[in-house]
């Protein structure tokens, strides 16, 4: 994934087009990393020049994003593995932070839509890192209510469809992310995992 994958959400959210999340946070979030989507050429709104803030945030996220990480490289104990599997049981991916990286673990059934969701999720996790007082703890603790992974997953689930619909209205194709993730995918329920 390259910095090209970064900017749709940031510009979209900076433009004020997204529904307010003031119920969750005191400020609107900055979700900066998704540009590898196609612009619909029939959209009459014209293109905007991307802000320096969005470009900078997208570049930072791009350097930290690992789409297709191995679960064994992300977790170091059974408690963390079970917490991630439980939290993301209804998603086509899992997400955790490890050594400064946003590690997206793709499930065997992961679709382009799941990859798009994961990048949206990473953007909000980045925003929390920059703007919220939620400290990063262990993976298991971050999966609990009030933890960074739980809060950011709840936000993604609540807001993703709105952002996707509004993005389509603005001329973005948001059916999924076309990316070449690392070749690793996991099948939950095998290799000793529940």
Automatic annotation (TrEMBL):
Q: Which residues form the Root UVB sensitive protein C-terminal domain?
A: 64-174
GO BP annotations of the record are: developmental process; response to UV-B
- Could you state one GO cellular component term attached to this entry? chloroplast envelope
InterPro entries the UniProt entry points to: RUS_fam, UVB_sens_C
> Known Pfam families for this protein?
UVB_sens_C
Extract the signal peptide range. none
Coiled-coil blocks:
none
PANTHER family named among the record's database cross-references: PROTEIN ROOT UVB SENSITIVE 1, CHLOROPLASTIC, RUS1 FAMILY PROTEIN C16ORF58
This protein is called Root UVB sensitive protein C-terminal domain-containing protein
